[in-house]
Write a structure and sequence with these properties.
The complex is a heterodimer of chains A (199) and B (252). By secondary structure, chain A is α/β, with parallel strands linked by helices. Chain A has one domain: Rossmann fold. In chain A, the strands form 3 sheets. Chain A has a 7-stranded mixed β-sheet with strand order 2-1-3-4-13-12-11. Chain A has a 4-stranded mixed β-sheet with strand order 6-5-7-10, covered by helices on one side. With 252 residues, chain B is α/β, with parallel strands linked by helices. Chain B has one domain: TIM Barrel. In chain B, α2 links the parallel β3 and β4. Classes of the chains: A alpha/beta (199), B alpha/beta (252). Chains A and B meet through α1, β8, β9 and α6 of A and α2 of B.
Chain lengths: 199, 252
């Protein structure tokens, strides 16, 4: 298994690498185009800001590389958001793998309910679909840190409620994305990483 | 629903836990990684590692510790204690810390909060405040582990820090810390209701009922405690089951 984590200007790359080590999987962190294209599986992590991340990817031609990958790809947090069509975080066009848009919680109707932004902490994931969630019970808790969310759409494979119901995971063809942090979501998160490796 | 969080805090000196524990089943109760992993297994939602080492070797020891923690523990953790620069934070995050907490250095140089938020994002910047209610009925900020009084009111500093980019407040009441008589409900509630970021209440948790009260009346988003967990006066598993039975939203 040749597992690659895409290296770019995002924050949680080491955490993802260490989480994979905890479940006995070796991965290589790289921004080398050939290594990414040759990998069996690709993880696209991320904690950071959408427009600067997109700019960084474009400058290195990584945007087109990621978009055209044929092997299973897992986007995490910002990685998932960048795989959507557009992000309201500094209004940036993203990779358009999923045609869902990424919006700001603060603009959602009902944001006045005194819920805080960002959402920080453990929340339920439900209506789970695809083998990514094998052996993960509906309603399991996952760890989230985010101010922007992907709306519900045809590619939604997990739903979470915060201010409103939104996509906590997306899937289209070989592309998967999760809004939460499987690398920090205790045993359930490790199961999801194992499931991705087994896809 | 987003849950309330239970956060054990481990004091670290020279890479070892400071306060004694009575965990008989641990091979090495002084090893923060082993103790942290046990708490994670028992259902802790996050961990805080507070370094009180005063030596020059501190930075290296702390980054090595962060690295070991992130290799062994599968829940988020915060590292704090004497952090004073972007470079300090960068090293800790590169070694797998999810958040860092700043206290005295941020008060002395509030722009540090802004720099950290810009460089790494608000989500990883926790502002720790030690506060004490004085005879005039106001809560004041204390520095240097509670040894130095300031004339600044707690709410004002918290508000300013949030505007500068702090993503979370870790609020310790010096009046309550160590008393086991319950958390400071009034100041916790003021910060939690008036600021747009989560508030972690710290200091005074002695019974399981105190945790119910700090969530329901204090409106805290998370509660932190140390010795009651270390000395097994309250188990994390038992506490979370109790909170669940009192209809507090928790992760079981």
């Amino acid at each position: 298994m040749n597992l690659v984590i895409i290296k770019y200007n995002a924050g949680n790359i080491q955490s993802v690498l260490y989480a994979l080590e905890r479940i006995g999987a070796e991965a290589k962190v790289t921004d080398n185009v050939n290594e990414i294209q040759r990998a069996d599986k690709v993880i696209f992590p991320g904690v950071g800001e959408a427009s600067s991340a997109m700019r960084y990817l474009k400058e290195r031609g990584l945007d087109m590389i990621i978009k055209n990958l044929q092997q299973p790809v897992l986007g995490i947090c910002l990685g998932m958001q960048l795989m959507c069509r557009f992000s309201e975080e500094n209004n940036v066009d993203c990779l358009n793998i999923f045609d869902e848009d990424v919006k700001y919680f603060g603009k959602a109707a009902g944001a006045a309910k005194q819920l805080k932004i960002p959402q920080i902490g453990w929340n339920n994931i439900y209506d789970l679909k695809t083998p990514l969630f094998n052996e993960v019970p509906d309603g399991s808790y996952a760890y989230f840190v985010h101010s922007y969310y992907a709306a519900l759409g045809e590619h939604t494979i997990a739903t979470t409620d915060y201010i409103l119901p939104y996509s906590s995971a997306l899937h289209k063809n070989n592309f998967y994305g999760v809004q939460f942090h499987p690398e920090k979501s205790a045993g359930k998160g490790e199961q999801i990483l194992k499931n991705f490796i087994a896809i | 629903m987003l849950t309330k969080r239970i956060i054990p805090c481990l004091d670290i000196k020279d890479g070892r836990t400071v306060k004694g524990t009575n965990f008989v089943n641990l091979r090495d109760a002084g090893d923060p990684v082993e103790l942290g992993a046990l708490y994670a297994k028992e259902g802790a939602d996050e961990l805080v590692f507070l370094d009180i080492t005063a030596t020059v070797e501190k930075r290296k020891t702390l980054s090595e510790l962060a690295n070991r923690i992130s290799h062994h523990i599968n829940i988020p953790f915060t590292v704090g204690g004497g952090i004073g620069s972007v470079q300090d934070v960068s090293v800790l995050l590169q070694n797998g810390a999810d958040k860092i907490s700043v206290n005295t250095a941020a008060y002395k140089n509030p722009q540090l909060v802004n720099e950290l938020a810009k460089e790494f994002g608000s989500q990883c910047v926790v502002l720790a405040i030690d506060t004490k209610k004085e005879e005039d009925g106001e809560w004041y900020v204390y520095l240097n582990g509670g040894r130095t009084k300031t004339g600044t009111k707690c709410f004002e500093w918290a508000k300013q820090a949030v505007e500068l980019g702090a993503g979370e407040i870790l609020l310790t009441s010096m009046n309550h810390d160590g008393t086991k008589q319950g958390f400071a409900l009034d100041i916790t509630r003021i910060l939690s209701e008036q600021l747009p970021v989560p508030v972690i209440a710290s200091g005074g948790g002695g019974t399981m009922e105190h945790f119910v009260t700090v969530f329901e009346e204090g409106k805290a988003d998370a509660a932190l405690a140390a010795s009651i967990f270390h000395f097994k006066e309250i188990s994390i598993t038992g506490l979370k089951q109790y909170l669940f039975s009192k209809e507090v939203e928790v992760r079981l």
